[in-house]
Design a protein that fits this description.
Largest sheet of chain B: 6 strands, mixed
Number of domains of chain A: 2
Shape of chain B: globular
Largest interface: A-B, 20 and 29 residues
Strand order of the largest sheet of chain A: 2-3-1-4
Structural class of chain B: alpha/beta
Radius of gyration of chain B: 19 Å
CATH topology of the domain at 2-31 and 82-103 and 130-278 in chain B: Rossmann fold
Radius of gyration of chain A: 31 Å
Helix content of chain B: 25-40%
Oligomer: heterodimer
Strand content of chain A: 5-15%
Bound molecules: adenosine-5'-triphosphate, magnesium ion
Number of helices of chain A: 12
Number of strands of chain B: 10
Order of helices and strands of chain A: HHEHEHHEHEHHHHHH
Strand order of the largest sheet of chain B: 6-7-8-3-9-10
CATH superfamily of the domain at 2-31 and 82-103 and 130-278 in chain B: P-loop containing nucleotide triphosphate hydrolases
């Protein structure tokens, strides 16, 4: 078939311009390697950040003098926020619960026995669906009659904000980096394909002369780009595999499990999936790189 | 992949359209008769380039201006009938190559009409130019062979371009190489062949798609007189099968010996168009040399 012929033409071109082909392959290799190292790291950081942000919760303290009716009104108000989708979960912690929790936390709970009465207020513990909702939740309940006048509302405002900013930054920085990386790789591969076209410009001229159509001339270059991209990607994946087995896995199993259990497995991408993504990316890099170049330099 | 199908589709049709046609009464020489028409001659729609019954090559008031008002051709009108053998002569810079490059649409006329096989090349869509080129065999002074391919592969490439099957390629390439006198040299790279042999390869490549028009720009420019003679004989034999042959040349001896139609150019204009030698009219001596 013709595809076979184009494939043979591509291999002929690769052999004839070995140095150029190696350059394109190494470019793809580097791009895919960085991408392959970056994607899991990026996903790990993102999952770690979101694990932290989910811990941001709002405590609404209730005045000891508040009536049951007032507390129920506050409960309903928070319930509405939940149906609105701003609140994921909320629990009522009574004065007794609060004391019990305190007791559990203290090394010497007997100090609490000396208290004449329970000084701890009751509270609603609210978990927002998204840390960004915390401010809205606070605004909704801050003037409620049932609120404890001294304790009021407590939530880690700055932590939440900082985490939010961090999460956004990680996300956009990640996308920007991946974008820049891919564009650079496409341009570099495109440039090597351009060298290949340039090296064979006399041949291309002859091909045109005997009546080869645009695509008859282009296909081999296109396939050449894809082959370089694929080979580069496969080598990069092999290198990443080696690093994963030799370094990351070894480190993870040797390190304190408390650290690794919390994040690394939760956020990591499965290696087979990563392989598919990276090899696909390599082929795409080659195809797009040569495609763009052919559009610009093989107008016939 | 649609484009590839398109290729194959047109390829078959051009093949069909350019099967050798007997124009002259002379019998086909035995060694040329061996170029059998392609086995698969299915009629397909959309024949891209099929010469009509009129002249093969027609120039109507053609002006070709290069950048900076350089006149390659300056108002050329001429007609070449199917089956003719025509020499295009003139001193260096007179516009011979310009004429030839206009015929294969390597150049476009600044004004006037270049009509090949009844088709006005000024109106030919860019995407159809490859089909025009398949219908015309081209031979150049510098051979223009693909340097990293053997003689056979060079000829085969022209067949692959037109979408022939591998069996067909394997059958026709040795045939055509034998025809141009390169029996047994198919596996040599161009650099392993003499100039004359390389030119034979390029003629084989030009012929292998059985064009109705063969154009040669100084095909003997790099060759010694004996070798040139061999090449010219080959072109003459090809012409006898009905192929229109147009040869641009400096080679006065050859033109004088062959006594064919001669179109003489000077500064982009036709100064003489007659049967005979390179420069029969003494009045032209000063201009054409
Ligand atoms: N690409 C170009 N750009 C500008 N001027 C050109 C170009 N090609 C040819 N010319 C000019 O056009 C004129 C005709 O050139 P052409 O190549 O057709 O001559 P020729 O008869 O083939 O000459 P030769 O026998 O030396 O090959 C010359 O004056 C030449 O300088
Ligand atoms: Mg010339």
């Amino acid at each position: 078939m013709r595809l076979g012929m184009f494939f043979r033409e591509a291999l002929r071109s690769i052999r004839a311009n070995a140095a150029i082909s190696v350059a394109a392959t190494v470019t793809a290799l580097i791009a895919v390697f960085i991408l392959g190292a970056f994607i899991p790291s990026f996903m790990y950081v993102r999952s770690a950040v979101s694990a932290q942000t989910s811990k941001v919760d709002v405590d609404v303290y209730i005045s000891d003098t508040a009536s049951v009716k007032q507390v129920n009104a506050l409960r309903d108000k928070i319930g509405t926020l939940k149906t609105d989708g701003q609140v994921a979960e909320f629990t009522y912690v009574s004065k007794d619960d609060a004391l019990r929790l305190m007791r559990e936390r203290l090394r010497d709970p007997s100090v609490l026995d000396q208290l004449p009465s329970n000084p701890l207020p009751a509270k609603f513990n609210i978990q927002p669906t998204d840390p960004a909702n915390a401010n809205a939740i606070v605004a909704a309940v801050k003037d409620d009659a049932a609120l404890d006048p001294t304790e009021g509302i407590v939530y880690p405002q700055t932590t939440a904000d900082r985490l939010l900013t961090a999460a956004k930054f990680v996300q956009w920085a990640g996308f920007a980096l991946i974008g820049i990386l891919l564009v650079a790789a496409v341009l570099l591969i495109g440039n090597t394909i351009r060298l290949s076209i340039f090296a064979r410009r006399r041949e291309v001229e002859v091909m045109r002369l005997v009546g080869a159509t645009n695509w008859f001339i282009r296909w081999p270059f296109m396939i050449e780009g894809v082959i370089c991209g694929l080979v580069g990607a496969v080598v990069a994946v092999a290198m990443l595999w080696g690093i994963k087995v030799g370094v990351v896995d070894a480190w993870a199993s040797g390190a304190d499990t408390a650290l690794t259990k919390s994040g690394s497995t939760a956020g990591a991408i499965a290696f087979p999936l990563l392989t598919v993504v990276l090899v696909g990316a390599g082929a795409l890099l080659g195809a797009v790189g040569s495609g763009i170049t052919l559009r610009r330099f093989l107008r016939i | 992949m649609a484009r590839i199908d398109d290729d194959i589709h047109h390829a078959d049709s051009t093949q069909r359209a350019f099967t050798l046609v007997e124009v002259r009464p002379e019998p086909v020489p035995a060694d040329l008769a061996v170029v059998t028409p392609p086995s698969s001659e299915k009629r397909r729609r959309g024949d891209v380039f099929r010469p009509g019954p009129g002249p093969m090559v027609q120039f109507q008031g053609v002006i070709k201006r290069y950048d900076g008002d350089v006149r390659g051709l300056d108002g050329v009108s001429v007609s070449i009938a199917a089956g003719e053998f025509v020499f295009l002569v003139g001193q260096s810079g007179s516009g011979k190559s310009t004429f030839i490059r206009l015929c294969i649409r390597e150049l476009r006329a600044t004004s006037g009409h270049v009509i090949i096989g009844g088709r006005d090349l000024g109106e030919l869509r860019r995407s159809k130019v490859p089909y025009l080129r398949r219908a015309i065999g081209c031979v150049f002074q510098d051979f223009r062979l693909l340097p990293d391919r053997t003689a056979s592969e060079n000829v085969a490439y022209a067949l692959q371009v037109t979408g022939h099957s591998r069996q067909e390629v394997n059958r026709r390439v040795p045939e055509i190489l034998a025809l141009v006198g390169l029996d047994g040299k198919g596996d040599r790279l161009p650099r392993e062949l003499s100039g004359g042999e390389q030119q034979r390869v390029s003629i084989a490549r030009a012929l292998v798609n059985q064009p109705r028009l063969l154009i040669a720009d100084e095909p003997t420019g790099n060759l010694d007189p004996d070798t040139s003679q061999g090449i010219m004989d080959l072109l003459t034999r090809i012409n006898r099968t009905g192929t229109t042959v147009l040869v641009a040349t400096h080679d006065r001896d050859t033109v004088d010996r062959m006594q064919q139609r001669v179109i003489a150019l000077h500064k982009g204009r036709i100064v003489r168009d007659a049967e005979g030698g390179y420069n029969e009219d003494p009045g032209d001596t000063g201009e054409i040399a």
